[in-house]
Amino acid sequence: MLFEYKAKNLTGETIEGIVEAINQISAIETLNRRELIIISLKESGNLPFWKRSLNLSFLDRIKSKDMVFLSRQLSVMISAGLPLVKALEILSRQTGKESLRKVMTSVSEDVRGGSRLSSAFAKYPDVFNDFYINMIRAGETAGKLDEVLKYLADEQEKTYDLMSKIKGAMIYPIFVLVAVTLVMILMMIFVIPKLTTILIESGVELPLATRILVATSDFFKNYIIFIILGAIVLFFLGRAFLKSKNGKAIWDRILLKLPVFGSLFQKIYLVRFTQSLSTLIVGGISLTSSLKIVSKVVGNTVYENLIRQSLIDVEEGRSISDAFIDAPGIPKMLPHLMSIGEQTGKMDEILDKIASFYAREVENILAKLVTLLEPMIIIFLALIVGGMVASVIMPMYKLASAI
């Protein structure tokens, strides 16, 4: 529940805000812990609608960039000798994102009340995944929380940089294709009918390409509302399908079998796997526990099942390199290098180098894709626009010749 409050702080300043709590008593306790003197406290739902806080959670979603910033700032403050509770309080005030501010305020209060940081984070699984929580727990146990937070921030930055490059490479072709699609639809509805009306009324025999263009234009003009509604329905049905267990499994298999892009996705998942496993091993997490955690964060059901099967093999006494040696979708290089890591006792370093290698491979594939996509898009546009122009000009030329 949300409660609107007006209170005075220790300096006598009157402040207003919103506090989230289970009930009014809990809200009062929360404000008291903040050393505020309550003047008024009302449930947000009882206020007039124009005074209620606008809750647009989809615009206030916590992103990976926010988590990188949080880990980095917390690491710096703790390394500087600042008490954990004070560091958390500063973070909760500094963040401009309301959803993250609420989470950090709650975490700060839990830690002030005696909870461990990992336990306080565990209350928000949508924000802090198993990987993050277990790394924090390992840092607390070893007394190296600042080092773990710094390492987490470094690894998150690597992941964030890689995903940013992937998204950046895809923005141009997606933007062009969407823009072209919209322009073509608008032309079909508003431009083509005016041009083809003259040809139809003239009685000249229309070529096949022109007849197809006219029929397509009529279809869009007469059924555009149904097309839009159908597209919306298909979008939500597709989204629901991909969120289902079977749907996600099917989609994940399709991704890995796509020409060109399949290799790209495979390497992205391998980067996640090796980088996450390396980080967990550095944090002192056991191999079996690390594999359980990594299977949940790799992001693809095919690799999730492979990792879970390897976990069973490891628990039965096999080495992790042997467990992966015949696994489909795992390059032969990976288990051989992991075997070297097992023999030398430097598994974390080997995995980190493998992750760096595949990250460079992803960047190289992206660079080649962008280079190839640009001329392909230009050729595609030329064919579409040229076909439309030819479909209109050919009958006009025939009409002019007849006159």
CATH topology-level name of the largest domain:
Receptor-associated Protein
Strand residue percentage: 5-15%
CATH class descriptor of the largest domain: Mainly Alpha
Task: List the strand order in the largest sheet.
Answer: 2-1-3
Kindly describe this structure.
The protein is mainly alpha-helical. It has three domains: 2-55, no CATH class; 65-157, Receptor-associated Protein (Up-down Bundle), CATH 1.20.81.30; 169-403, Up-down Bundle (Receptor-associated Protein). The protein is 74% helix and 5% strand. It is built from 15 helices and three strands. A three-stranded antiparallel sheet has the order 2-1-3, covered by helices on one side. A hairpin with a 5-residue loop joins strand 1 (2-8) and strand 2. Helix 7 runs antiparallel to helix 10 (261-282), helix 8 packs antiparallel against helix 15 and helix 10 (261-282) packs antiparallel against helix 11 (287-297). The radius of gyration is 29 Å and the shape is flat. The model is unreliable at 53-58 (pLDDT under 50).
In short:
With 403 residues, this protein is mainly alpha-helical. It has 15 helices and three strands.
Topology (elements, then pairings):
Layout: E1 2-8, E2 14-20, H1 24-33, E3 37-43, H2 64-79, H3 84-94, H4 98-112, H5 117-122, H6 130-142, H7 145-202, H8 208-243, H9 245-257, H10 261-282, H11 287-297, H12 301-315, H13 320-324, H14 333-344, H15 347-402
Antiparallel strand pairs: 1-2, 1-3
Helix pairs in contact: 2-3, 2-7, 3-4, 6-7, 7-8, 7-10, 7-15, 8-9, 8-15, 9-10, 10-11, 10-15, 11-12, 14-15
